[in-house]
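One-letter codes give the sequence; the fold follows as tokens. An example follows:
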Amino acid sequence: MVEAAFVTSGVSKDRKLRCLFCKADSSASRSREHIVPESLGNTEHVLEPGIVCDRCNNYFARNVEEPILKSLYFKERRFSAVIPNKRGRIIPLDGFHLRSGTRIQIHADTGAGVRIGAHPDADEARFIKTLMVQSPGTLIFPVATPPEERVLARFVGKVGLEALASKLIQVGESHEALVDVPALDELRNFVRRGNGPRQWSVARRQLYSPNTVFSDGDEHYVLLHEYELLLRPIDKANDLYACYISLVLFGEEFVLNMGGPALDGFESWRASAEG
């Protein structure tokens, strides 16, 4: 099977301002859209109002981004990286103190390490009493598994479409060039409405440790997220490519085909390109 592809040229730019996803008039929209959620540490990669309408922006926050942000898998990674949410709060992790039989929470504070306390719904007095008269004992935390692939695919697909719009804007084009591209409609509907295939494949691999420190001259930093659009030539003579989004969060790469749910041929092409 060959992945769906789209033509990268020949689309008129003289269009009324419309939403990238629902295609409705977005001229009056006021919300800026974060390509990667702010709660994953992104403050730079943002689309101006009107590229994504207010209604779609709100929908994504509740139905596409929130399931990812609230998953234990990404809560743990956000906690380890000490990333606050929009309200400036670092979400605590829930666990269990075996000796006292108490639900607990572990809190992280920027520059102040971690602290452990009873869960707000737990018996704090019993927890404290146990710690005072006995050794600390064992703390148990649930094992985090990745989000269900369909949830993950809708999130990665949203990032991909917005990254593609951002790339066009960076080179002086308009996001309107993508609104009427039929080859993107299947992903558009999958991301915005949950319509389409039951599964949309996502290739995953760990590129580097979440705690890897990168250097740029005298500057040292931890890379929380990055993304890249990958174009695999299908018919260069006719300017036809398969387009993939590569999204890296906390060192783990997620790749999705933006032209269709299959990844047939991607792994071999990537291995050849990287080799």
